[in-house]
Structures are given as structure tokens and as C-alpha cells.
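User: Round two. Same drill as before: sequence, then structure, for each protein.

Assistant: Same drill it is. First protein:
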Amino acid sequence: QLQVVESGGGLVQPGSSLRLSCAASGFTLAYYAVGWFRQAPGKEREGVSCISSRGGTTTYAEAVKGRFTISRDNTNGTVYLQMNDLKPEDTAVYFCAARDVRIGSCPVDRMDYWGKGTLVTVSS
């Protein structure tokens, strides 16, 4: 079964950091663009960040620019989202998704494989 799996969520205080990881099962993530998305309660799923298959192109939502960093290690087939200076408004379920393209383009309705999500809660 082809799927992606996220890990690394948790409960943290405002100003803290977390690193999310995304790995693939059944296919090689290295050939895919990968995006991170999030969905807060009562809100639509939104794009957070995207990285091209080789890592040369990255994009970020305005709300996370300067705080989040997406990266990938194609030797072990993992994509990371380093989240610093977390705010309560970052609380959401975070999803990883892969798209069968090389470029760094991750429209939410064009992704091919989705994970089940990992919960990030930022609260004091």
C-alpha cells in the first residue's frame, strides 16, 4: 500500500520548537514534491510549505515564513518541517502529502498521497 506517514507532533508551550517528519511506504519519496498542510478545528485545510523533489525550491505560507523550515534528506527518504517560535494559532493537525512531480508545487487538490496527520497543540 502506497502511503506517507507523519510523526513528531505533540503538546508544546508558545515559543517552543517541534520537528515533524514525513516518510513514505511503498514508493520512493525522493522523486516527489512534498507538502505540509494543516487543518485547525472548524477550518479548511491549508498549505504550510512545499519542497521540490531535489530540495532546490521551497515555498511557505505567509503565516509561517521565518519560523518554519522545510527540508529533505533523500538518502533516507524523509522530509522534515522544523517549526520554531510556535504560536497558539499554529495548533492544528499537520498532514504530509506527496505529489508525483519534480517541481516545488503543492496545490492541496493535486497531491497524490496523503498521510493521516499528526496533532500539534501549542498551549500554555
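Second protein:
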Amino acid sequence: QVQLVESGGGLVQAGGSLRLSCAASGRTFNMHTMGWFRQAPGKEREFVAFISWSVGSTYYADSVKGRFTLSRDNAKNTVYLQMNRLKPEDTAVYYCAASKWAVSVTAARNYDYWGQGTQVTVSS
């Protein structure tokens, strides 16, 4: 089992920044990829970004590319999502997730463990 705990959400004005954290514990050695997804009210959960635990390679959805940055601290088993130049349309509950897969990891169905989510609200 892997446990994921997100933190860092909150209310911010448009153009502002937030940093989300996702701390992983348990049998993390089986996990290859950490991803972030978000879900706004009335919408489906959508992919935001992922990072490879081992090599640190990252991939972003077009909607956040150039504004969001993923990083990891392997010693702390923690992944960070730095979100800059936030927009009202970024408002959602943000979830981190862990996958044992290295491919097809923009799809939520390929993630094995999920955090409880953290709310991000961007006011205009």
C-alpha cells in the first residue's frame, strides 16, 4: 500500500502562485510515476502533469505548460507542484496519484493510489 497526502492548497488571486506538496509513504519503491490531476465542479478529472520518480522527467498538460513546474525530493518521498500565474480556470480540487507504470500515465485509470485532494481556488 502507498499513502499519499497533499497539502498547500488555498485561495489566491489571479496571477498569484501556490505550491502543492504530495508526501508519499508505504511501499513507494514499486511506484514509477507521480501524477497530478484536477477536478472542477461538474467536470471530469483531468490530467495536469507527471514526474518520473527515478529520472525526474516531467510532462505537462498544454493548459498548464509554462506556468506549472513539478519537482521531487526523493529523500523525503515528496513531489511538489509549483503553480505560477494562476488563472480562475485553474480552480479545482487537485489530486496527486502514484502509478507503477511508466507509459500511458496521462490517464487516471493507470494510477494505483490517490491522495485525498486539496482545494485550489483562484479568484478573478
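The first strand starts at residue 2 and ends at 7.

User: Perfect.
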